[in-house]
Design goal:
The complex is a heterodimer. By secondary structure, chain A is of the alpha+beta class. Chain A has one domain: 2-Layer Sandwich (archaeoglobus fulgidus dsm 4304 fold), CATH 3.30.2170.10. Chain A is about 35% helix and about 25% strand. Chain A contains five helices and eight strands. An eight-stranded mixed β-sheet of chain A has the order 3-2-1-4-5-8-7-6, sandwiched between helices. Chain A starts with 7 loop residues before the first strand and ends with a helix. The mean pLDDT of chain A is about 90. Among the domains of chain B are: about 35 residues, no CATH class; about 80 residues, no CATH class. Helix content of chain B is about 10%, strand content about 25%. Chain B is built from three helices and ten strands, in the order ααββββαββββββ. In chain B, strands 1-2-3 form a three-stranded antiparallel β-sheet, with no helix packed on it. Classes of the chains: A alpha+beta, B alpha+beta. Chains A and B meet through β3, α1, α2 and α5 of A and β4, α3, β5 and β6 of B.
């Protein structure tokens, strides 16, 4: 049984060149929201995009949106989960909490629940967190220790017993789409 | 030609030659067609200290009584009926460009708590289909769902997913799968079963 402080944190930063916004959702072990923070949309003008050049997207995501969200979140979760490789390492550095990037994979189910399999990509593993379903593709920030990978897989496997670990991304996308539509 | 000259020319074949020293042609008079036009300098005799745009304010202040026929008025300057457009001093303003700042953050917990969780049908991933008590054909399987915390369940028929609303504040964590089952027999409707 998961302990009450078994919280997972989800961060999504979404948008286009003209409008970027982000949101962070902290859930309990069954996926119920405990904290939700979102940012106002960042609307850079043409001059800003020229001045920042190629670094614009990275700067906006890391320095402005991500830092704002992390500053606003009241309690750190035991694991931060993102779905954007651009913010994986910055999220780890700034939050100092275990961090992983999760995606669905088309891979056939692994042998058993909790099983971890390496892939051809460095820092990328397949984790079979639930009994029924495809394994998740888990990407870790560079320089991570092997024991931290094991700990993260254990957290995900435990959470998958009471919730769909990837499902909160669907709710975050819906929430951001709702906000982007102009409705409040 | 006189008689003497005539005879001298025919008899002696001589021709008298006279020297003329006195030409009485007066040189033409030359008149200058240039007019003197009085010019008035609009420039005050103020030493320039720095290079900057002309300051009309200083000009009016320092030349209190102009020595030439220049009229100052609120609308402009008239110099011998020639209208001079007023020079309006405009400082060159510099603007500090504000680079992008961190966006404001907001908490919207209640709105997000009202959103249902969505569970996909995992029946196709099940290696071994469970034998349900009471029999029937399993149409779909959704999970994990914490039965004790469920406020409401709804089937999204378009997507074939199960929407789950949980009670806020529930501490239940025992999760199970919920099956959509059709009993065998005429007129039997699909039903939900927890296993």
């Amino acid at each position: 049984m998961a302990s009450p402080n078994n919280t997972l944190g989800y961060i999504v930063i979404d948008g286009t060149e003209t409008q970027i916004r982000g949101a962070a959702l902290i859930t309990d072990a069954k996926g119920f929201p405990l904290d939700f923070t979102r940012t106002d949309p960042l609307r850079p003008d043409q001059l800003s995009r020229i001045l920042y050049g190629e670094a614009f997207g990275k700067y906006a995501k890391e320095k402005l949106i991500l830092e704002s969200l992390l500053d606003a979140v009241e309690t750190d979760p035991q694991l931060w989960i993102c779905n954007d490789p651009d913010i994986l390492s910055p999220l780890r550095e700034k939050s100092r909490v275990k961090t992983v990037m999760l995606e669905e994979s088309p891979h056939v189910p692994l042998d058993a629940k909790g099983h971890i399999e390496t892939t051809a990509d460095p820092g990328v593993f397949l984790i079979q967190a639930n009994e029924n379903g495809a394994p998740m593709r888990a990407e870790f920030p560079g320089g991570i220790r092997p024991d931290e990978i094991q700990q993260t897989a254990a957290i995900l496997t435990e959470a998958a017993g009471t919730m769909d670990v990837l499902e909160p991304f669907v709710r975050l996308d819906k929430a951001l789409s709702f906000l982007a539509s102009g409705a409040r | 030609m006189g008689v003497r000259d005539f005879l001298a020319r025919h008899i002696t074949r001589r021709v008298n030659v006279y020297r003329v020293d006195d030409f009485s042609i007066e040189p033409p008079e030359v008149h200058k067609n240039m007019k003197r036009v009085e010019t008035f300098s609009m420039r005050p005799s103020i030493p320039a200290e720095v290079s900057r745009p002309f300051d009309f304010g200083e000009f009016t202040e320092k030349v209190k009584r102009p020595a030439v026929n220049v009229k100052f008025s609120g609308k402009g300057i008239k110099a011998k009926n020639i209208r001079v457009k007023r020079y309006v001093k405009e400082d060159i303003k510099t603007h500090k460009y504000q680079l992008m700042r961190k966006p404001k953050t907001w908490t919207m917990l209640k709105q997000v708590q009202a959103l249902p969780q969505e569970r996909a049908n995992i029946l196709r991933y099940m290696k071994k289909k469970p034998e349900l008590s009471g029999g029937g054909v399993i149409l779909a399987c959704y999970g994990p769902v914490v039965e004790g915390a469920v406020l409401k369940l709804a089937l999204n028929k378009q997507r074939g997913t199960l929407l789950v609303w949980y009670k806020p504040g529930s501490r239940q964590l025992k999760a199970r799968n919920v099956y959509l089952v059709r009993r065998l027999g005429l007129g039997e409707k699909p039903e939900w079963r927890w296993e």
